Amino acid sequence: MTKRWFIIGCNLLIMLGYSTAYIWQGELGQGGWAGQDLVLTQWSFLVIHIALIFALGWIKERTREIRQSYIIAALLVSLIGHGLCIYNGAANAAWN
């Protein structure tokens, strides 16, 4: 496995881990309008994660392939993570 796929895969697994935890927490009864705080926390954590990945991608001392890997990882985490936030919000609203 090249370093590119390792960077992308690790960031996607990290995002999937905390998104799953927030979705699971929402299923345990923090649904309805009370779930808005849960989704806001998940979204905030996602934005911090994306900003950190972009920052790591802008470091000039790294090779071009590694910088591109971080940028691709940030874009994938952004797209998939926001989809999971929308799913979590819709699921919380539908359950109550």
Structure overview:
By secondary structure, this protein is mostly helical. It has one domain (3-95). The protein has three helices and no strands. The chain has helices spanning 3-27, 35-57, 64-95.
Summary tags:
96 residues, mainly alpha, 3 helices
Main pleated sheet: none
- The fraction of residues assigned to DSSP E strands is under 5%
Structural domain tally = 1
Look at the helices and sheets and give the structural class.
mainly alpha
Let me know the number of strands: 0
Q: How far do the termini sit from each other?
A: 44 Å
* Secondary-structure element string: HHH
Estimate percent helicity: over 70%
3D shape:
elongated
What's the tally of helices?
3
Runs in which pLDDT lies below 50 for 5 or more consecutive residues are none
Gyration radius (Cα, Å) is: 15 Å
List the helices and strands and how they pair.
Blueprint: H1 3-27, H2 35-57, H3 64-95
